[in-house]
Amino acid sequence: MGSSGSKKRRQGTTIENYVSWFEIPAHDLQRAVAFYNRIYGISMETLEMNGYAMAFFPASGGVGGAVVTGEGCLPAQAGTLIYLNGGKDLDQVLGKVEEAGGRIVMGKTMISEEAGYFAIFIDSEGNKLALHSKS
User: Fold this and answer.
1) Is the pTM value of this prediction over 0.85?
2) Which domains does the chain have, with CATH numbers?
3) How far apart are CA 102 and CA 81, in angstroms?
């Protein structure tokens, strides 16, 4: 996980959050939705349009995202690594990954006292993702 400890801003940088939206590709939307609903204890709403189907992570402010199926939506274990919010203690979410059909690649690991912890997992679709929490 990269360091976010530096508070220095270069002149001209005015963006507060560099992530504004994320999409997690899926082969089987129902299976992926069941996986994320289970590990987070949520209920994702779905929408189909223009040959794509999306299931949205409930969000109130901040960064939102969705699980998506359609042309070009290919799950992968290589490439960009998305860190999902692990809540107050990522063990709560991580503990449900395997029973929901995923696989833990790296268990809860301390980054530093300031930055907190992370863990890496493979979801039901074969995507490699991470969780982050302060404790």
Assistant:
1) yes
2) 21-133 (3.10.180.10)
3) 16
Side-chain half-sphere exposure of 90, counting CA atoms within 13 A:
23
Backbone angles phi, psi at 64, to 5 degrees: -110, 170
**What tens digit of pLDDT does each residue of 4-63 get?**
554 555 566 778 778 999 999 999 999 999 999 999 999 999 999 999 999 999 998 889
Side-chain-facing half-sphere of 47: CA atoms under 13 Å: 7
Residue count of the chain:
135
What's the one-letter identity of residue 34?
Answer: A
Tell me which residue of 82, 63, 71, 86 sits closest to 122, measured CA to CA: 82
